[in-house]
Amino acid sequence: MKKTYQGSCHCGAVKFEADIDLTQGTSKCNCSICTKTRNWSAIAKPDAFRLLAGEDALSDYSFGSNSAHHLFCRHCGVRPFGRGYIEQIGGAYVAVRLASLDNVDPAELVDAPVHYCDGRNNNWWNAPAETRHL
Questions:
Q1: What is the maximum alpha-carbon separation in the chain?
Q2: How far apart are CA 36 and CA 15, in angstroms?
Q3: How many Cα atoms occupy the beta-carbon half-sphere of 19 within 13 Å?
Q4: N or C: which end of the chain has fewer CB within 10 A?
């Protein structure tokens, strides 16, 4: 069942809320950026995400196919969410970084299923051989 979560960056300049069903799964990836930033996210459709403050505080980092916009607060550097368009996952999406959720119960995170993506080898639909470090 979807629940409305509030989230923010560290300094509070960026604030959002998102309707997410954590029981439907979360994801971790071993690609270069996800590994370096320890990304753990849940995907939401754009209509289930509301940026409440801080559009002007966001900076964008994009690379490769430019299908993903890795947004971060230009003040504190935290990456509360990203946006993009990937046809294979249903088009437009918002990737909410679970570490940025302010009102998530740790038990919800423990119980949330995790899908691992082998982005390092462009094998996105399969888990990498090793996931313990993700």
A1: 40
A2: 23
A3: 6
A4: N
Structure tokens belonging to residue 132: 């313990």
Could you give the CA distance from residue 54 to residue 110 in angstroms, rounded to a whole number?
29
pLDDT tens-digit map of 89-122 = 889 999 999 999 999 999 999 999 999 999 999 8
**21, two tokens:** 């069903």
pTM of the model: 0.93
Task: Tell me the pairing of strands 114-117 and 26-29.
Answer: parallel
Phi-psi sector, 125: left (phi>0), alpha (psi -120 to 50), beta:
alpha
- Torsion, Cα of 103, 73, 59, 127 (10° steps): -50
Amino acid 29 reads C
- In CATH terms, 3-121 corresponds, of 3.30.70.890, 3.40.50.2300, 2.170.150.70, 2.120.10.90, to 2.170.150.70
Residue 52 has pLDDT above 90, yes or no: yes
Instruction: Count Cα atoms within 13 angstroms, Cβ side, for 44.
Output: 25
